[in-house]
Amino acid sequence: MPPGAYLAISLAALVCGYLLYGRLMVRLMRPDNARPTPACTMADGVDYVTMPAKSVFLIQLLNIAGIGPVYGPILGALYGPWALVWIVLGSIFAGGVHDYFSGMLSVRRGGLSLPDVVGDHLGTSMRRFMQVFSLVVVVLVGVVFVTGPARLLSDMTTIPVMTWVVVIFAYYFLATILPIDVVIGRVYPIFAGSLLVMAVGLTAALFVEGHATGAPLAWTAPPADLPMWPLLFITIACGAISGFHATQSPLMARCLPDERSGLPVFYGAMIAEGALALIWATLGMALYPDPAKLQAAIAAGGPGKVVNDVSMELMGPAGGILAILGVIVLPITSGDTAFRSARLTIADVLGIAQRERHRRLLIALPLFALGATLSQVNFEVIWRYFGWANQVLATLVLWTAAVFLARGGMFHWPASLPASFMTAVCATYICHARIGLNLPLVVSSWMGGAAAVLTLALFLSRGRHKA
Fold first, then answer.
1. Taking Cα atoms as reference points, which of 357, 367, 380 lies closest to residue 135?
2. Distance CA 268, CA 61 (A)
3. pLDDT tens by residue, 59-112
């Protein structure tokens, strides 16, 4: 089939997944609008602020849709249509489940940050581990989402990368310490306009320019040094399943007007991000039918070069610039809330109320000093470690949801099955990768499978008991 047919079928599958599988999420969580949300019971005018469900959805989408659903799918396009299969199945059966339960469990716990949500179900030791691990992940995200857009902006202008880094860090700082409806609540609608231009404009151009009806996509073997298992499931994280999302969900759990809005805000935003990932994976395959040429373009300038080339070719100079700005918006609207999430996580751990500005500054200043230091580290090195850590975090959140369901006497397989799969992915990757044990793939796969089976067995034997 030509690229356009794959894209249309995949998008339709996402919509069906939301309408059908989303119902199962509601049956399991049993949202009740008679139960007041933290935004109503704990309003502080800073982080706990009731906002309309549509606004909360928009902010959640921009929070989670960083550079991942663009860069990851472009890299994933090297695997051909398999990338689209993973995006669809991952969004519906893994990422959507992960995002919905991470958000709703936070709502039920007064909007507390991820470590407390996980600790409630997996025990004190895991709470302490998550206090460090999740904080490391969100800080890495914040740093990655400074350098990425700074490079794209530098390519579009004559302004040096470091100047853009300073500008973006300054915006992140304001977005971190000011009330959520002062900066984020006001600028996100503007950012959403750029995002809409990018998604709709590039999709339309794909069909108008004839690329959507071009040569059929081939189910070719991936490059020899990039085995599909397990790299595809690490490479395409945002757009399928990403642990970073769980660090963002508590932000919106503190703004949700009612519990039934949780399905469109959390599960729905994941499906929408999956649609963005499908668009960029299809663009990569349609404009680079030969995987070798796509790999050469990535080697020459990274995924950012592909973004620039695709946008300019499909939409011309003016439209291309708008499309690129839409891509720049994605990481910026995740980086700002990444640092905000880090502030709130630290505040929850230390028990520091955040209503007063000087208390927010007490946490934010050293946090940004650390972020500025990490921004000088090689981007590719940070991204390699972030990819694995991000999926480990997602796996832990899925196991948290599984334990919650099991202890409630509910059907736990929608969470425990993807949790088992992601356990195998993460264990196999770290055993095989150069940044890990660097073992042969066959050996690593057996070890990953064993880790998944043992973890599932432990869950089935102890999951219903209090930690």
1. 367
2. 9
3. 999 889 877 888 899 999 999 999 999 999 999 999 999 999 999 999 999 999
